[in-house]
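Researcher: Re-running this chain for the archive, since the previous output was lost when a drive failed. Same request as before.
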Amino acid sequence: MKLHFRNIVCITAALGFTITANAQEKRGRARDFGVYTGILKTGTNNAITDVAGVTVGQKTVIKGDSVRTGVTAIIPHQGNVFQDKVPAAVYVGNGFGKSMGLSQIKELGNIETPIVLTNTLNAPLVANAVLDYVLALPGNENVKSVNAMVGETNDGGLNDIRGRHVKAEDVLEALKSAKSGTVKEGNVGAGTGTEALGFKGGIGTASRVLPVSKGGYTVGVLVQSNFGGVLSINGAPVGRELNNFYMMDKTKIYKADGSCMIIIATDAPLSDRNLERLAKRSYIAFGNVGAFSSNGSGDYAVAFSTYPKNRIPYNASSMVRTIDDLNNDDMSPLFMAVWEATEEALLNSLFMAEDMKGKGGRTVKALPIKETLNILKKYNALNQNKLPLAIEK
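Model: Regenerated structure tokens:
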């Protein structure tokens, strides 16, 4: 039977990966190729949406030969987030960024809107659209102040960023289309025009579930990868072996700046203090994949808990609020979970991205899967899931 390319795409999509039209190379998530990170089990979808109630919506904006951008929205729960705020925290790895809403999160320890990611110069317009969305929700008719949480990275290498092509209707579409389950990755939403570690970056996600003996909690991570460095996968020097990394050749321009947004969700009962501690650990994974937080890279981790008892009502019935909070000594399993999930989310953003041609005819190539796997084999960095995994007790 003769298979046409269109049929092959349909078949591979059903298996969880796609083929790029240009390279004819199979794309997929890191695990599809035997690239395993850590020892903990993943959630059902290995995505931030494995944290119950969390949904993700995206809008990809591609127009002509120079618009390559979009919006990715993360909604913490399915109620009115402004009326029922979630505890949250921010960790700033490097503050060269134009995100909006972070100072109030750090001050009050909560998030009161969906978290929306986009490109740098579109952040104010996206924030305005988030305000429109929140103010229009039933029950918010008398609200006079809203702290919109908008994260960003600069996709100006492939996108006509000065044109500010993300519009309010794009933001609303992302918010209204948010759903649980699988999350699209790579060249989608806020990751459409991003690039990372010398290759095409994008949106990536992953999750970890703790053993019952450690609470059975879920940690989910979503990243918008757009930064420089020297790619490393499970300790293998992939960027060096592929001769594609920052400062390799003074006659060529390699991306160092750009930024990374790391969004962390968990159902564990955490205060904003412990959420900040959790957010800090994600930065270990940032270094593991070869990032070094250049001068112009705005690198932020935002963590929130969906644990119902710890939510903060807009109109409190009592002057005193009592919350549940894990003991400090019981935080270590969560630290491991966020470290593992962040690293895998970053790798997924690279493995799922495809070649992208954008502004000025510039093309950023995706991570070459076949060559990468050969390097990982060389350094015994593949199929590490055959080692004993964490035993659930």
